């Protein structure tokens, strides 16, 4: 298991398998970034090697050099930080996070790695620590949810021991920020594992079982309750029941509750958890199903955030609602033109069974609203329109409170996760009008990301600030790994949500 520690010892004296340092692009070519702590002979040697390799010092430009004079590490890994000065210690946290992630990915099979990137303050120290932990992630293909393949012995994927050199000292604040990075990193890796798990292994009940198992192994004090298909039907959760009725794997709503003693604040997180989305009777084309095991990335992010908040002992109550269903076609599947009644009594006409995420979220938001939290955030791989508008790397953020929406975007910026505020024009509510129910669950093609959020807004309790994160693009990386982001499940949203909860705890 990957671990993070902090040190102020001279990096060149650390007896590790690999020592990571930074490079910058100057007018005279590539050079080492400040903070490396290397002796002159090592610097001269590495400068010569970088020049010979025509290093660019851009993010992702990583070079491993062995037998560097004056360094105890077996090899030195030089990772690009972009344009800058060899004397500068101020770098954008995103650049630090990505540089550390790219470097650690190249040596993630090693036992011990030290990182000596510029860390003049605790913010940069946190960015480096976070990126380093994120970079070593790899999904264990031999194990799903802790169950080895039949007939094959396998050990869990082991990560390296990572020691981060701190230019900000080794006091409590520095130790705390590194410890937070380790807790966040482990939680985010769990979210990535859930997203990457094959859909024949991860379905609503096995997802619920995985949450129970993880919570039982965690030092955080989290309680888990599960509503099965009978309880959902009895409780009036028509949205999620309708979505899941076509599958032999019935739906579940899993509630994870962290309630520290004395907490005067409470927040709610709601995650879309479609463990596989075929589109239902409105069947997707075959190419559209390839990544649909990732349609539960919102629920994974919520589960990981609640766990991390509990393990960090944050002084605010956090409740996560995982809305889990499998959207498949069958003789019992939901039909276009069906009308269902949601948890809050709202009747909804179904127009497209492939727009199922908003239905499970609507019931989850109703349930969350009943507890009257300080605010609600839902997170979902909701619309293809998000990717059309914002691309594969930037989430759309919408909400019923401009100030709260701004806070969510600020939390995403601080976490290094791309997010952009989007409007909810009141005039677009008319797109959801229908003569056969209180509301239709989908509008026309134009502004599809916005009308999906306008639909969700109908289920938010009166007076509760709410924000919706559409993470259809950034939740799953179909391209190659880059920076601190792996291929496959990215764990997007965990850092943002945890940061948002921390901000609320600070008042």
UniProtKB/TrEMBL annotation:
Functional note: Presumably involved in the processing and regular turnover of intracellular proteins. Catalyzes the removal of unsubstituted N-terminal amino acids from various peptides.
Pfam families: Peptidase_M17, Peptidase_M17_N
Gene Ontology cellular component list: cytoplasm
Source species: Phycicoccus duodecadis
Binding site for Mn(2+) 1: 277, 354, 356
A biological-process GO annotation: proteolysis
Active-site residues annotated for this sequence: 284, 358
Domain Cytosol aminopeptidase, residue spans: 190-497
Cofactor details (free text): Binds 2 manganese ions per subunit.
UniProt xrefs under SUPFAM superfamilies: Macro domain-like, Zn-dependent exopeptidases
Required co-factors: Mn(2+)
Lineage of the organism: Bacteria, Bacillati, Actinomycetota, Actinomycetes, Micrococcales
PANTHER family xrefs: CYTOSOL AMINOPEPTIDASE, LEUCINE AMINOPEPTIDASE-RELATED
Catalytic activity annotation: Release of an N-terminal amino acid, Xaa-|-Yaa-, in which Xaa is preferably Leu, but may be other amino acids including Pro although not Arg or Lys, and Yaa may be Pro. Amino acid amides and methyl esters are also readily hydrolyzed, but rates on arylamides are exceedingly low; Release of an N-terminal amino acid, preferentially leucine, but not glutamic or aspartic acids
Protein origin, superkingdom: Bacteria
Protein family per UniProt: Belongs to the peptidase M17 family.
Major location category of this protein: cytoplasm
Cellular compartments annotated: Cytoplasm
Enzyme class: hydrolase
Residues in Peptidase M17 leucyl aminopeptidase N-terminal domain copies: 37-141
Binding site residues for Mn(2+) 2: 272, 277, 295, 356
Protein name: Probable cytosol aminopeptidase
Gene Ontology molecular function, alphabetical: manganese ion binding; metalloaminopeptidase activity
Documented EC number(s): 3.4.11.1, 3.4.11.10
Name of the encoding gene: pepA
Keyword ATP-binding: no
């Amino acid at each position: 298991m990957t671990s993070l520690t902090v040190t102020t010892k001279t990096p060149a004296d650390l007896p590790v398998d690999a020592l990571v340092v930074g490079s910058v692009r100057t007018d005279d070519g590539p050079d080492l970034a400040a903070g490396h702590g290397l002796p002159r002979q090592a610097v001269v040697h590495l400068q010569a090697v970088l020049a010979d390799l025509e290093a660019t010092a851009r993010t992702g430009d990583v070079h491993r050099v062995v037998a560097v004079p004056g360094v105890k590490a077996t090899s030195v890994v030089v990772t690009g930080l972009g344009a800058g000065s060899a004397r500068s210690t101020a770098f954008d946290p995103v650049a630090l996070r990505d540089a550390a992630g790219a470097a650690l990915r190249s040596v993630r099979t090693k036992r011990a790695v030290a990182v000596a990137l510029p860390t003049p303050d605790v913010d940069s120290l946190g960015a480096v620590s976070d990126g380093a932990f994120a970079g070593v992630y790899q999904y264990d293909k031999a194990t799903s949810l802790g169950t080895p393949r039949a007939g094959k012995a396998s050990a869990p994927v082991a990560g390296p021991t990572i020691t981060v050199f701190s230019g900000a000292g080794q006091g409590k604040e520095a130790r705390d920020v590194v410890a937070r990075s380790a807790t966040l990193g482990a939680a985010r890796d769990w979210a990535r594992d859930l997203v990457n798990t094959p859909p024949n292994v991860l379905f609503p009940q096995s997802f619920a079982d995985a949450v129970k198992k993880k919570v039982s192994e965690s030092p955080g004090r989290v309680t888990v309750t599960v509503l099965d298909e009978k309880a959902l039907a009895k409780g009036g959760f028509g949205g999620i029941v309708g979505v899941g009725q076509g599958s032999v794997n019935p739906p579940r709503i899993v509630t994870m509750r962290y309630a520290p003693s004395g907490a005067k604040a409470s927040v709610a997180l709601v995650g879309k958890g479609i463990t596989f989305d075929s589109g239902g009777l409105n069947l997707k084309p075959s190419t559209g199903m390839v990544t649909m095991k990732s349609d539960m990335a919102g629920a994974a992010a919520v589960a990981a955030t609640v766990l991390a908040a509990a393990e960090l002992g944050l002084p605010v109550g956090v409740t996560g609602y995982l809305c889990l269903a499998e959207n498949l076609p069958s003789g019992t599947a939901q039909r276009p033109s069906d009308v269902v009644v949601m948890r809050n009594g709202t009747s909804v006409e179904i127009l497209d069974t492939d727009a199922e995420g908003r239905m499970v979220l609507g019931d989850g938001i109703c349930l969350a609203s009943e507890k009257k939290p300080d605010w609600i955030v839902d997170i979902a791989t909701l619309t293809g329109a998000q990717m059309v508008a914002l691309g594969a790397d930037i989430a759309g953020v919408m909400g019923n409170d401009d100030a709260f929406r701004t806070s969510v975007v600020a939390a995403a910026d601080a976490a290094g996760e791309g997010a952009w505020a989007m409007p909810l024009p009141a005039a677009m509510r008319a797109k959801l009008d229908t003569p056969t129910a209180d509301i239709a669950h989908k509008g026309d093609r134009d502004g599809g990301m916005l009308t999906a959020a306008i639909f969700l807004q109908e289920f938010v309790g009166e007076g509760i600030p709410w924000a919706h994160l559409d993470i259809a693009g950034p939740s799953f990386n179909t391209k190659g790994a880059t920076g601190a982001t792996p291929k496959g499940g990215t764990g997007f949203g965990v850092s943002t949500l945890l940061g948002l909860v921390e901000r609320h705890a600070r008042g």
